[in-house]
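Example (one chain per record):
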Amino acid sequence: MGGASLVSRKMGRPPDPQSAPTPAGTTAMPELIPDLVSKIPWPHWAFIVAALGAGILAVSCLFCAICCCCQRRRRRRKKLQDKEVMSLGSARSSTTTHLVQPDVENLESSLGDPRQWGRMQLSLEYNFGSQEIRVGLKQAADLRAEGTADPYARVSVSTQAGRRHETKVHHGTLCPMFEETFSFHVPLAELPSATLQVQVLDFNRFSEHKPLGELCLPLGTLDPQHVVECWYQLGPPGTNEAEQMGELCLSLRYVPSSGYLTVVVLEARGLSPELAESYVKVQLMLNQKKWKKKKTSSKKGTTAPYFNEAFTFLVPFSQVQSVDLVLAIWARGLQLRAEPLGKVLLGPRASGQPLQHWADMLAHARRPIAQWHRLQPAKEVDRILALQPRLRLPVPRP
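Predicted structure:
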């Protein structure tokens, strides 16, 4: 080894550090790290800072892992609490938001009934000034039907025979949100004997509407001094006396470019068997004034007359929202005197299914839309249209 270093000195090269003699009793491994550090041109304080940064990074990673574990535990606890709250939601939602609380025992027994028909949330408010009761239909829940349904509600008061209101149709749901308010004139003296009737039906455009549930609420049990808003249990559907008036099926088609409104009177059903003959009058009203009218041929000796007659009216697009369409079934009984059996009002001032039919006609231009409609009392339709009853002139005697 000494000769090699001597030769290198003689040739002008510096001696090789690896060829330096190693002291006895030591090894080369402990000097490896100092040799590497000495070869890197960094000051010693830089190595200290790097070591501190690595330590801080390791501590921060450990802290983040601990925080993630804590958040997961909190989320699990929150989910368990939410499930407990949802399990009590049906009982809590049955309480009123104002001043009246329903009977909890009756509610629990109804919820336990396996043949329940659903629930209805509504509000009741009596106005002493106008002597009107305002019925606010909020929503329905858990309606009983096979699969989905197209529910709507029909509201009436026993003291006002023939007058009723219908909500819009909500398609494909068993928990419809109505959010509609209706008013009925009920004097304070008649309030104890009045009964509110709410029927929920499944809409079908071409067949009979299937009842889904019914609510009969005696208004005499309520305090008119307070506003009531709560859930009520629906019962099984009952018979509807108003259905004896009958139904009328008609088709509507409107072409905006030409302004032609085509009304096809198809058929009727459920008419009284005591009628000798019946026919349909089709009348257009513009700005609450009688405008145009036509009528079908008479059908004798049947409770389900089939007409299938079309009538075309010229209604410019600028006036289509100012037009009311009235179809009335006139019938002659044993006295051979023609009387209006019932009417159907369609147009912007209609409500419920007739209004929906009118809206479908405008939304699907050039396409005929057919639908069944229940007849309403003639006096009720005239009241909505603000029509005055026609005076009967005395017949001169010979």
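Caption: Residues 227 and 293 are 46 Å apart (CA to CA).
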